[in-house]
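Obj.: predict assembly geometry.
Materials: sequence records (below).
Method: joint structure prediction, all chains together.
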Amino acid sequence: MVRHVVLFSWKDGTGPDKIRDIEQSFAGLAGKIDLIEGFEWGTDISVENIAHGFTHCFLVTFKTKEDRDTYLPHPEHRKFVEMIKPYLNDALVIDYQAK
Amino acid sequence: MVRHVVLFSWKDGTGPDKIRDIEQSFAGLAGKIDLIEGFEWGTDISVENIAHGFTHCFLVTFKTKEDRDTYLPHPEHRKFVEMIKPYLNDALVIDYQAK
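Observations (raw structure tokens):
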């Protein structure tokens, strides 16, 4: 099982409606791209103050690294990435094979 | 379900034996602290080059935010944090209630 961990923070002025739109668009990918095995997300509720400014965490699960490799250039994923770029302050992605 | 996402990077000179020791100590917490509902981890295999230097991702699952609150100051967790401090280059923690 491969976990694809995605953190976002937003540019100043990105309103709650736009952020909700982005959350729903990301979640919608799971319905459009079959090889997404699992999808969940949430907003930061940590209390340690070391989230590096990130407010959103998305956890996308694939069966294999190859499925992750197919997902990244998938047209629906590319479209999503282009859609959010103007609003992104920062992004972090780390993937791992779950032990 | 509350996910507690922990990313680490190591100071230069932290050898593979020490890193293995830290990985095992973190995993060992799941056996020592009952309220850890799930634990998995892995090293970065992302290909997007936006991992911000982090090499390790740990995903700790709790039933509730209150269990997370109890975990943080737990003596076994505090001991682990003190043990790894000399070797940490950077840490990021983000928690979310899984949607």
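Conclusions so far: Chain B has a mean pLDDT of 97.
To do: check interface contacts against the pulldown list.
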